[in-house]
Automatic annotation (TrEMBL):
Segments forming a coiled coil: none
Entry keywords, A to Z: Cell membrane, Membrane, Transmembrane, Transmembrane helix
Keyword hit for Transmembrane helix: yes
Organism: Rhizochromulina marina
PANTHER family with a match to the protein in the record: EAMA DOMAIN-CONTAINING PROTEIN, OS03G0707200 PROTEIN-RELATED
Any Pfam family: EamA
Membrane topology: Multi-pass membrane protein
Protein name: EamA domain-containing protein
Domain EamA, residue spans: 2-126
Keyword hit for Cell membrane: yes
Cellular component GO terms, alphabetical: plasma membrane
InterPro entries, A to Z: Diverse_Substrate_Transporter (IPR051258), EamA_dom (IPR000620), EmrE-like (IPR037185)
Predominant subcellular localization, coarse grouping: membrane
Localization per Swiss-Prot or TrEMBL: Cell membrane
């Protein structure tokens, strides 16, 4: 039940982002989302181990770049297409794991990863691209 609610909330990301971009410039829409997220998550900042701060800032920088890119894409592109392109992370993440960790990620080494990636892309394509 909770997973279904999370999925529903995530599905509102792109249409609401498109509506925000209609009312505000892309930079203002993204900035307002980041400020709100910072306020909500700030109580947990003090619980963070000092040794993890660098990694957390790096990860947060990539998330921020993703949201800025999404907001800019929603200016000229339909929310359905932006959502489909955003779902490509299921392919990018295994490729990054192969590049960064030098872990074997071929079909024979990790078939479940690639099967899951293909199923995710097919599912999102069916939901988003075919009307």
């Amino acid at each position: 039940l909770i997973l279904a609610l999370v999925s529903i909330l995530y599905a509102t990301n792109f249409p609401l982002g498109s509506l925000m971009n209609d009312a505000l410039p892309a930079s203002a829409a993204t900035s307002s989302r980041m400020v709100l997220a910072s306020l909500v998550l700030s109580p947990f900042l003090f619980r963070l181990k000092p040794s993890l701060r660098r990694e957390v800032l790096l990860g947060g920088s990539f998330v921020s770049m993703g949201y800025v890119s999404q907001s800019l894409a929603l200016v000229d592109t339909s929310p359905a297409l932006v959502s489909f392109l955003g779902s490509a992370t299921v392919l990018v993440c295994p490729l990054l794991q192969w590049l960064v960790d030098k872990r074997p990620m071929g079909w024979k080494d990790a078939p479940q990863t690639w099967m899951a990636a293909c199923l995710c892309l097919c599912g999102v394509a069916a939901l988003e691209l075919f009307g």
